[in-house]
């Protein structure tokens, strides 16, 4: 995997670290039509994959959940905290990291918007 030697010890330590301050979120991708869907195979949820801490996972989940909410008309809220919880977890993680390192840290984020690879739901 071409992992640099200087990172190996940190990786090993991360496997057993508690609290798991490197972890932000996880998501199961499922397909489910509804209990009364015309296709019997879509009446039972089917798990496609499990995503955890991938760069696009949370953005995908938030936008797809909102699109599903609009299309199905099941209320006016996602009934989860997909926006709020990551903010809380980032605050927790940064505090723990700063305590361990003994100084404040800076985190940089990058985002693209509307470029040739950007996708949006129809």
Automatic annotation (TrEMBL):
Q: What is this protein called?
A: Glutathionylspermidine synthase
Glutathionylspermidine synthase pre-ATP-grasp-like domain: residues covered? 1-109
Organism, by scientific name, is: Fusarium oxysporum Fo47
The alphabetized UniProt keywords are:
ATP-binding, Ligase, Magnesium, Metal-binding, Nucleotide-binding
Q: Which GO terms describe its molecular function?
A: ATP binding; ligase activity; metal ion binding
Tell me which stretches of the chain form a coiled coil: none
InterPro entries in the cross-refs: GSPS_pre-ATP-grasp-like_dom
Tree of life domain: Eukaryota
Q: Name one Pfam family in it.
A: GSP_synth
């Amino acid at each position: 995997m071409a992992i640099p030697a200087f990172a190996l010890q940190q990786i090993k330590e991360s496997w057993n670290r508690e609290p798991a301050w490197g972890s932000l979120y996880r998501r199961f991708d499922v397909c489910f039509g509804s209990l009364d869907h015309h296709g019997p195979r879509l009446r039972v949820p089917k798990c496609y994959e499990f995503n955890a801490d991938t760069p696009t996972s949370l953005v995908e989940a938030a936008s797809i959940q909102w699109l599903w909410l609009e299309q199905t008309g099941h209320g006016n809220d996602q009934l989860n905290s997909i926006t709020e919880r990551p903010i809380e977890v980032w605050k927790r993680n940064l505090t723990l990291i700063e305590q361990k390192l003994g100084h404040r840290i800076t985190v940089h984020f990058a985002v693209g918007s509307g470029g040739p690879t950007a996708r949006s739901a129809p």
